[in-house]
Write a structure and sequence with these properties.
Its EC number is 4.3.99.3. The chain is an alpha/beta fold. The protein has helices at 12-16, 72-81, 100-109, 169-181, 184-187, 201-211, 221-226; strands at 22-32, 42-48, 68-71, 86-90, 113-118, 132-137, 161-166, 189-194, 216-217. A 9-stranded mixed beta sheet has the order 3-1-2-4-5-6-7-8-9. Helix 6 (201-211) links the parallel strand 8 (189-194) and strand 9 (216-217).
Length: 232
């Protein structure tokens, strides 16, 4: 796992005394983006610590606790030092730390192509409009459907994406109804992913094709390449 590098611009002892805005970070690493519209691009991932949700299929529970405090300017410097154009701010739930909005703005100001992976349970209205917001709308099978903040959906644009992780046929039918009810395919890119171990990729693909559903099927490229190895 690529946690705070030893040669980072700031150290934990420096940050404690720093008056600058800080965020608690689980890891910063470079890999290939595994999903959404930038899948396949070399991308710096900034994984913030903490999440108020407990989705039953979560694959990053190690980010719920721990982490290291970083000055936001130090995070930006570390991202730029990685030497790639794309950066994804993720978690956990990154918006659970209010200063995440500052980080997103500064990454955009630095000329990065910025995406935000968020659960859809928190308000996205104040996110810098230059950021691509990837909103994970929680299905019944997630065990967190009640946390969906549906007020976010009318805010989404062609620059954003909405993602559904499908655990069952019930999830699929629910997600299909949400796409129609909220006119999501007319507003933004809609992504359907199979939940590993619950339905097969082929099942989901066949349902989408049979219904001619205007959504984009996706699998998590990073898991196909590296399984569940942290920091990849």
């Amino acid at each position: 796992m690529n946690v705070t590098p030893a040669n980072a611009v700031t150290t934990p002892s420096d940050i404690v005394q720093s008056p600058l805005p800080r965020l608690k970070i689980t890891e910063i690493f470079t890999s290939l983006q595994g999903e959404a519209d930038t899948a396949g691009w070399p991308t710096v991932f900034v994984r913030l610590t903490g999440c108020p949700l407990r989705c039953q299929y979560c694959d990053t529970a190690y980010a719920f606790h721990g982490g290291t405090w970083w000055d936001i300017d130090a995070i930006v410097a570390e991202v730029l030092a990685q030497g790639v154009r794309h950066v994804c701010v993720t978690g956990g739930e990154p918006l659970a730390q209010k200063r995440c909005l500052i980080l997103l703005q500064k990454l955009c100001d630095a000329g990065m192509d910025v995406s935000l992976e968020t659960s859809g349970a928190l308000d996205v209205s104040e996110v810098d409009p230059r950021v691509s917001r990837v909103v994970d709308l929680k299905t019944p099978g997630s065990a967190e459907m009640a946390r969906n903040k549906l007020e976010n959906l009318p805010l989404l644009t062609a620059r954003d994406q909405v993602k559904f992780v499908i655990c069952s046929r019930e999830d699929y039918d629910w997600a299909k109804a949400m796409v129609v009810e909220h006119h999501l395919a007319e507003r933004t890119m809609v992504l359907f992913s199979p939940s590993k171990g619950e339905i097969t990729a082929r099942e989901l693909a066949d349902w989408i094709v049979a219904d001619r559903l205007p959504v984009r099927f996706q699998m998590q490229l990073h898991k196909l390449l590296w399984n569940d190895e942290p920091g990849r």
